[in-house]
Write a structure and sequence with these properties.
Largest sheet: 5 strands, antiparallel
Strand content: 25-35%
Number of helices: 1
Structural class: alpha+beta
Number of strands: 9
Radius of gyration: 27 Å
Strand order of the largest sheet: 1-3-4-5-6
Helix content: 25-40%
Shape: rod-shaped
Length: 156
């Protein structure tokens, strides 16, 4: 009776072990990559939602809209009782508010585009502003999200 393993048995065992480790390694890196992609998507959603909420809040509480209303444009000027005149627009691929200094509402990690403000002035009702824009991450990533909301002014 022999004690131990033959060379062929050891090579087969090492081959099986190598295959299992390669599969586990591939799954591990796939999980890490998926987690990173999910993290980028979460940051993109947070950036867009912050900008949308900030603009909505300021427009809702504005004393008046100084831009043409009714009308559609890539920027909007409002008068606010506490901050004076605010202008929302795109600046260098980022959403910004100027009051009079420029402050960015989105991170430089993402590119904002297609910013549209559509102001409607119905009779006997407050003015309504529809805000729409798209945020995306520059290539090679392909995450893109469109944000949109409609806000009615409280003061009319």
């Amino acid at each position: 009776m022999k004690n131990g393993f033959s060379l062929v048995e050891l090579l087969v065992a090492l081959g099986i072990l190598g295959g299992v480790l390669a599969a586990v390694n591939g799954i591990f890196f796939m999980v890490i990559k998926s987690g990173q992609k999910a993290d980028v998507y979460i940051r993109l959603k947070e950036n867009g939602q912050y900008a949308l909420n900030f603009m909505s809040y300021k427009i809702r509480d504005a004393d008046s809209i100084l831009s043409a209303c009714p009308g559609t444009g890539a920027s909007i000027r409002i008068r606010e009782h506490s901050a004076g005149t605010l202008t929302f627009s795109l600046a260098g691929g980022r959403l910004s508010v100027a009051a009079p200094a420029v402050n960015y509402l989105t991170s430089s990690e993402f590119t904002a585009q297609n910013l549209v403000f559509n102001c409607a002035a119905p009779l006997n009702a407050p003015k309504r502003v529809t805000i729409s824009f798209t945020l995306s991450r520059p290539p090679p990533a392909t995450e893109t999200q469109t944000f949109q909301t409609t806000v009615s002014l409280r003061n009319y």
